[in-house]
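Continuing from the previous page of notes. For each protein in this section, the sequence appears first, followed by its structure tokens. Read the first protein now.
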Amino acid sequence: MTMRMRAAAVLVLVAFLAGPASAQIFTDMTNSPYRRAAERLAAKGIVVRLPDGRLAPDEPVTRLDVALYLARTLGIAAGNVRLPDFKDMDQIPPADRSAVAAASILGTVSTTKAEVRKGQILYTLTTNKSVYGPDEQIELNFTITNDGPARPAEILSPDRGKSRIKLTGTEGIKAGTTGEIYVETRTPQGVKRETVARITILEVRPDAVVFQVEEEGTVQMKSGLKGFFLPDVIFDYPTTQFHDFIVRDAEGNEMARWSLNRPFIGLDRPVPLAANQSLKFATAWKQLDQNDQPVRPGRYELVATQMTKENPTILTIAFQRGMIGAYPDGTFRPKQQVTRADLAVFMVRAIGLETESLRRARDPLQAADARDIPADARGSVVVALDRKMMLSFPDNTFRPSRIADRGEAVFALNVLMETLGRYDFVTATLREVRGGPPPVVVVEDAQKQIRSLRVGVVSAIYRNDASVLLLQLRAGDQLKMLKPTDAGEITYIEATGR
């Protein structure tokens, strides 16, 4: 074989190995600041290439575009969603109607967990997930836990047959106080509490606290043992109703109440909550009003209340039903172009920060054209800029009435995906690259298991933040990979290596 033939053979081999995995997914994003965001989203099937391979980042984004993006980003299974009665439904492509319905009716919560601590009591309200279809139940769990902080305690030697402890601080401790002495040990899973004894305080002396053991624990009590003392808490309820769950709309109208039509009786004595114990209450809201009708798109408050006589504790999680609603005339207007102010509103709703946007509507806004931002979108713009979902222009203007383009939508969606934790990266160490076809990367995961993963013909590959071809990856590189489904091809790779 001549030198020229060898060189030609090498070039053919390189083309064969590198060709199937191109360096980028979109043909018009080489120098775009939105390129990485677009490729990540494409790898998860949220944005798709146009027939000619472009994303067209500078083209206007429509309400239909945003509805499709959000339905895919939030992972709503649109197949069984009831179609809203839009007057212009005929203008929405049949294949897209379920996704539009999902985006116009699906719900998100501001947080899956709200907490308030009052002294040694921790109040927690949780939902079972962050995104809900229109017919899904929202599971609410309200927990009241007596978990401290506790007072450091040391077991003293008995005095004339009476058990004693030394407490760091005796405020609020008196004869008759009940509680628990416990010790803490650290384990790989966290701090573990083990009970020494359940006790009743008999006398509070300047040098020690005298107590009586009511129930022995798993840890032996002995002089010199250091641990903690956590007193029981007493709650004063007017009736046997210890809690309530309420759903209110944005105007404060009550949509649903757990206690409605439930019987309760009066109480004439307080109710204790033992140390290191919890009261747990649960319900499920079906997104229906008091008349069992589906609630309309809008913002709602999911409220849990402890029904004490004085200073009841209230926790709230905001719920937004519908990201993109209909116009007052009942139309959806799928071809209507979306302004930057509109895009901020839609994205803030999708991320579950509608309540924060309302609270921050009067916050200072460092934009030269802040006065041009519509009042009903101002809070969303504040949040979108603060969370870096959208950016100001170099002249420090926001330009709320300017039509948003596909690149700006992609940028915001990427932040939404990151915030919601929906990028399910597969991490592994590269062992080798096989040219195929199809091209394959052989990797070793954290459990030392070897896997062969097919790489898509149209893929985005980076090594140390530089766009590369598949052949330019090296054995030992640490890989982060995305694929549309568990069984799909790898279509996005971020590699780091020497």
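Done with the first. The second protein uses the same format. Note its length before scrolling.
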Amino acid sequence: MFRLVIRLIDQAQEKLGLLCAFSIGLMTILGAMNAILRYSSRTIGTNLSSNAYLEAQWYLFAFVFLIGAPYTLSKNRHVRVDVLYARFSTRTKCVVNLIGHLFLLLPFCVFGIWASHQFAFDSWSIREMSPDSGGLPRYIVKALIPTAFVLLGIQAVVEILRNLILLRTQEPAP
């Protein structure tokens, strides 16, 4: 049962990871386009750029950073101080991971959801727009914050299950 849940969540994270990779490409194209339009505007004397382009690039970065965090955790590519961890046995690594996920990451996610949900809800309820002329809606990017914490919390639970299975059966979960 738990292995099926792990597999399904991993598949969803894989799709989100692909979406993040696509967003990085799009963000790079937007960044290059912004630079070209800005320098072209100086040359011809007419403004070709827009705040919408700049904000779209910023929103894509926020998406990649926030939604990419759970994907990174699922691939075990998150930042870790490996001075001691690299020397630990598999069992000790599992215990360290369990302690970290249970007592640090999950409470952090709960706090993040608690601290950001009203902020995002208020923005969504008034359909908040950018204060800059030609800007994009802000409520969409603000909704990413609690969403990211929910996804990160779900991934933390998956990692807890994965480590418990490994501790119990000595064979890794998918």
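What the second structure shows: Residues 98 and 160 are 6 Å apart (CA to CA). The helical segments are 2-44, 51-74, 82-85, 90-125, 139-169. We return to this in next week's lecture.
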